[in-house]
């Protein structure tokens, strides 16, 4: 019982080691409330930082502490950047504008603009295109013809006479696109067909090209015009509604047009032609056909009596209409044949001519236009009216399928033939081979001009515009936010970036120009030899080679030389401006400022930075305590 009473008595309070921190807290003016659940801390101004450290040490998680340190460092960096930017603005506000740099930027804008203009002119002013040279090469590389047959029933020459035969001519009718006709039965014949503007205006108002009529349009009497596929025309007739026929030619290779008579004799080849037009063919081959035509004279050139295909031949096509061919006349061999509307073939032979004051059908996928220049080397063989031409090729139905498709007997279609382009004897041999070779690689000239134009446009945009604006603003002491943390290097840093880009693009431009020089110069000299030696007497070829030399010399070679001179001058100015920028850099913070006023500006910034240094030291102390807390006991 005495023991129970003893246990019921309250225990005496005996402080031990666990209660020692409470005593220390009381010594530091820390008060505990009566329930012992909450602490209220009061700090003196002198012990404030130490109390915070103790509180973090007791209560904060180490990971949370490191994250707060990182946030604080970022905040300090941001404050330093703002301080640097403000200081840079104060420094640059007092500096004068760099007039030398502004003059350099203005000069370089003019340079980039000039280089761009020269490149555009060099590319744009090419009057001769790859297709012009290809036309010349195709002519010089064409096959000769040693036999011509005709057929009424089978328009496929290969199946009729063998794989060596093909149509003497083929006219490609391009076909039409789909359209919507809303003319509502307009009397097209009431229009003045001589006035092309009236006809064009009618079709623009009444036709919708390339689209099907909608349901709403159909209710308004509009009709869809179905497309017509491309077709190949290769038939002809006598022009009097005679039976259509197809002429089939057998083409051969092996002609040596670029050689002279002595070569032909030494190689034991058959010599053909006369005078300057002599050439040779393999010994087992007869001289090629050099003249063809139609006649109503059955005894023309006495061909029917001679009956010798090595001389020529004549065919009766019915109704007193005859076709003939001759070999080894004074002409060069016939190799090209064209059928076209009107009586002339375009200078660019692939273009289709059209009669004067006539417009092509608006739904055509490839509309014809009247040629401004024609090829006189093409000679007229025969002519028939337009209705006969469409009838012979069995496409007269197009008049019914296509509204307002005009097949008019007033317009004629003509057949033409062309020989090899005459080539002077003194130009044959190596020069002839060089012309053929350089023509096959002429596309490299246009590729190099395109690449050069692309580099020049990039050069103008990057240097002439972007860096020019940046350079002007820098010379005017504009403060770039990206350079706020490095105020001592803004001026030269931006300038060196500009110089680096400019030099890189200039090197690329110079490389392209040098490659163009190498390509253009070789071709220019070869074409110059052709013109100086009067190698061609054909007007079209003479026009072609004269303009090609002018293009390569004036618009490509000379313009590229001007660009190189401009770049050389610019390089010298670059060196001068680099030296000027380095000397000018200490006025813009590139070197240490020695002026008294600027030292005061820097002192203002250093006072603000001293507090930041104290914060950094406190952060280092926090980091040490965090490491101690994490280390194993």
TrEMBL record:
<keyword id="KW-0812">Transmembrane</keyword>
<keyword id="KW-1133">Transmembrane helix</keyword>
<feature type="transmembrane region" description="Helical">
    <location>
        <begin position="102"/>
        <end position="123"/>
    </location>
</feature>
<feature type="transmembrane region" description="Helical">
    <location>
        <begin position="457"/>
        <end position="480"/>
    </location>
</feature>
<feature type="transmembrane region" description="Helical">
    <location>
        <begin position="557"/>
        <end position="578"/>
    </location>
</feature>
<feature type="region of interest" description="Disordered">
    <location>
        <begin position="1"/>
        <end position="45"/>
    </location>
</feature>
<feature type="transmembrane region" description="Helical">
    <location>
        <begin position="492"/>
        <end position="520"/>
    </location>
</feature>
<feature type="region of interest" description="Disordered">
    <location>
        <begin position="587"/>
        <end position="633"/>
    </location>
</feature>
<protein>
    <recommendedName>
        <fullName>Transmembrane protein</fullName>
    </recommendedName>
</protein>
<keyword id="KW-0472">Membrane</keyword>
<feature type="compositionally biased region" description="Low complexity">
    <location>
        <begin position="18"/>
        <end position="41"/>
    </location>
</feature>
């Amino acid at each position: 019982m005495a023991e129970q009473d003893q246990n019921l008595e309250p225990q005496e309070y005996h402080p031990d080691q666990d209660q020692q921190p409470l005593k220390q807290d009381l010594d530091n003016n820390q008060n505990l409330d009566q329930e012992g659940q909450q602490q209220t801390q009061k700090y003196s101004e002198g012990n404030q930082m130490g109390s915070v450290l103790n509180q973090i040490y007791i209560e904060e998680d180490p990971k949370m502490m490191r994250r707060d340190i990182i946030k604080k460092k970022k905040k300090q960096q941001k404050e330093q950047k703002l301080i640097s930017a403000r200081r840079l603005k104060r420094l640059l506000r007092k500096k004068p504008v760099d007039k030398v740099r502004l003059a350099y930027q203005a000069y370089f804008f003019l340079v980039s603009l000039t280089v761009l203009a020269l490149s555009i002119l060099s590319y744009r002013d090419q009057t001769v295109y790859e297709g012009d040279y290809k036309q010349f090469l195709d002519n010089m590389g064409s096959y000769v013809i040693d036999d011509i047959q005709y057929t009424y029933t089978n328009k496929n020459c290969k199946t009729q006479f063998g794989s060596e035969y093909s149509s003497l001519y083929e006219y490609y009718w391009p076909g039409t696109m789909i359209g919507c006709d809303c003319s509502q039965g307009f009397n097209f014949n009431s229009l003045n067909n001589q006035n092309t503007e009236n006809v064009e205006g009618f079709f623009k108002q009444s036709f919708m090209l390339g689209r099907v009529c909608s349901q709403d349009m159909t209710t308004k009497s509009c009709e869809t015009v179905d497309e017509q596929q491309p077709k190949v025309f290769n038939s002809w007739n006598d022009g009097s509604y005679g039976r259509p026929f197809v002429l089939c030619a057998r083409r051969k290779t092996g002609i040596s047009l670029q050689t002279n008579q002595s070569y032909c004799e030494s190689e034991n080849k058959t010599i053909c032609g006369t005078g300057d037009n002599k050439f040779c063919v393999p010994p087992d081959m007869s001289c090629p056909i050099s003249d063809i035509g139609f006649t109503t004279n059955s005894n023309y050139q006495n061909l029917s009596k001679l009956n010798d295909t090595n001389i020529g031949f004549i065919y009766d096509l019915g109704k007193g209409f005859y076709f003939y061919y001759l070999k080894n006349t004074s002409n060069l061999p016939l190799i090209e044949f064209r059928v076209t509307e009107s009586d002339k073939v375009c200078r660019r032979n692939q273009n289709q001519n059209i009669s004067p004051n006539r417009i092509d059908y608006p739904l055509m996928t490839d509309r014809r236009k009247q040629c401004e220049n024609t090829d006189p080397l093409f000679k007229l063989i025969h002519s028939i009216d337009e209705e006969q031409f469409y009838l012979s090729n069995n496409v007269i139905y197009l008049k019914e399928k296509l509204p307002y498709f005009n097949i008019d007997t007033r317009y004629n279609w003509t057949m033409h033939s062309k020989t090899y382009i005459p080539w002077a004897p003194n130009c044959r041999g190596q020069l002839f081979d060089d012309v053929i070779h350089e023509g096959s690689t002429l596309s490299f000239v246009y590729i190099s001009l395109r690449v050069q134009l692309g580099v020049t446009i990039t050069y103008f945009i990057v240097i002439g515009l972007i860096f020019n604006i940046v350079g002007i603003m820098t010379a005017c002491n504009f403060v770039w936010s990206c350079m706020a943390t490095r105020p001592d290097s803004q001026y030269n840093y931006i300038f060196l970036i500009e110089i680096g880009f400019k030099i890189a693009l200039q090197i690329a431009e110079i490389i392209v120009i040098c490659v163009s020089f190498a390509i253009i110069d070789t071709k220019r000299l070869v074409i110059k030899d052709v013109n100086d030696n009067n190698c061609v007497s054909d007007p079209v070829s003479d026009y072609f080679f004269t303009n090609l030399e002018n293009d390569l010399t004036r618009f490509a070679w000379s313009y590229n030389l001007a660009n190189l001179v401009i770049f050389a001058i610019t390089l010298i100015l670059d060196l001068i401006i680099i030296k000027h920028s380095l000397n000018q850099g200490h006025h813009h913070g590139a070197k240490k400022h020695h002026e008294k006023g600027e030292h005061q500006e820097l002192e203002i910034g250093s006072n603000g930075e001293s507090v930041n240094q104290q914060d950094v030291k406190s952060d280092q102390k926090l980091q040490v305590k965090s490491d101690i807390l994490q280390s194993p006991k």
